[in-house]
Structure formats: structure tokens, C-alpha cells
Design brief:
The chain has four helices and five strands, in the order E-E-E-E-H-E-H-H-H. It is an alpha+beta fold. It has a five-stranded mixed sheet, with helices on one face. Helix 1 runs antiparallel to helix 2, helix 2 packs across helix 4 and helix 3 packs across helix 4. The radius of gyration is 17 Å and the shape is elongated.
């Protein structure tokens, strides 16, 4: 239910459980002695995240929580093992997607055209761009539209 630390095999492991993230129950494990973060489904490197079970804003809060570990090594669920600077890059995708959805909504674009007009060339080389990005764009666009109706 919440983040905690446990001692296993002579090491302290910090279990990080964000309130929201990539999916219900998503968690990460940080091992302070080696400064290694196992990001689980909260982290993808060079891969478009699947937002079907998540709100991008909440996922960004989870990434901020993971970034607060100041880890040196990152083990993502998807993509290559690397540095924790990849957390900022993934956050950049969510930010760019939110901005693009807001632009499309402000321009009066309809949902039927969102997938075709939501291109983010800086992420086009990521795995899953051709399939996951369009669906993510539609989901975020619908959230923007719903938020405008609530005002």
C-alpha cells in the first residue's frame, strides 16, 4: 500500500509504490548500496509507454518520485539497462504528448484526426511508436476534452 524498506540477502531494498503510475499496483525497487533502480512497468527506455491503464500526469509524478532516488543505474521493464537520466527523457515524452493534445484541441481538431495529427518526431524512433503513440494521443486528447467540459 505504501513505499517501505526491507532487508533481503544482507541488503536494504527500498520498495517504491507511487499512488498512481503506469498501472494499478506498479512498483519500483531501489537498492541504495549500488544506486540501482529497478523501474518495473513505471520505466521504459526508447519505447513508447502504453498509457491504457494510466494518466500521463500521474505517471509523471511517479517518475519524479523515482528520480528523487538519484540513482546511478536503471533497469527498466522495457528497453536497455542504462542511466537514470532516461527518467527525464520518458517524462519528456509525456510532456510533449500533453502539449500536442492541448494544441490539437485548441485548434478544433476532432478525435477522428488526432492519431494522424499527433506526430512527435523526436520520439518516432522509439519502439512502439507506430502502434502505441496514436492510442496514447487519443487518450490524452480525450482527457483534455473532458477537462474542458468540466470548467
Amino acid at each position: 500500500d505504501a513505499s517501505t524498506s526491507i532487508d533481503m540477502i544482507g541488503r536494504t531494498l527500498r520498495l517504491i509504490v507511487p499512488a498512481e503510475g503506469s498501472a494499478p499496483g506498479a512498483l519500483a525497487v531501489f537498492e541504495p548500496a549500488s544506486s540501482t533502480l529497478i523501474g518495473g512497468s513505471l520505466v521504459a527506455v526508447d519505447r513508447i509507454p502504453d498509457m491504457r491503464d494510466s494518466d500521463g500526469a500521474d505517471w509523471r509524478v511517479a517518475l519524479e518520485l523515482l528520480g528523487a532516488t538519484h540513482c546511478a543505474h536503471l533497469v527498466p521493464a522495457y528497453g536497455s539497462i542504462g542511466a537514470c537520466s532516461a527518467l527525464r527523457v520518458l517524462d519528456g515524452y509525456f510532456s510533449a504528448l500533453a502539449m500536442r493534445a492541448q494544441q490539437l484541441f485548441a485548434a478544433g481538431v476532432g478525435l477522428a484526426d488526432v492519431a494522424r495529427r499527433s506526430e512527435l518526431p523526436e520520439f518516432a524512433t522509439w519502439d512502439g511508436y507506430a502502434t502505441l503513440h496514436a492510442a496514447n494521443a487519443e487518450r490524452v486528447f480525450l482527457r483534455v476534452e473532458r477537462a474542458s467540459l468540466a470548467r
